[in-house]
Amino acid sequence: MLRKLALLLIGVTIIACYAVPYIFLGQMADWKGAFLFWCLAGLAIILLNAAAMANFSEEDE
Question: Which residues of 14-53 are buried (b: 16+ CB within 10 A; e: fewer)?
Fold first, then answer.
């Protein structure tokens, strides 16, 4: 259950990495907002990958 939720949130985060900077931050003249968002999204992806693979073993398929 946790693995499926983490993988779903990874997908949502990847979509947000495309949508947020161009749709919501596109009107900003400064690039710092998008850079901060991508840094936080990268950190979120790392944490979600760790959560998804926490109990991973070779028997799981």
Answer: eeebeebbeeebeeeeeeebbeebeeebeebeeebeebbe
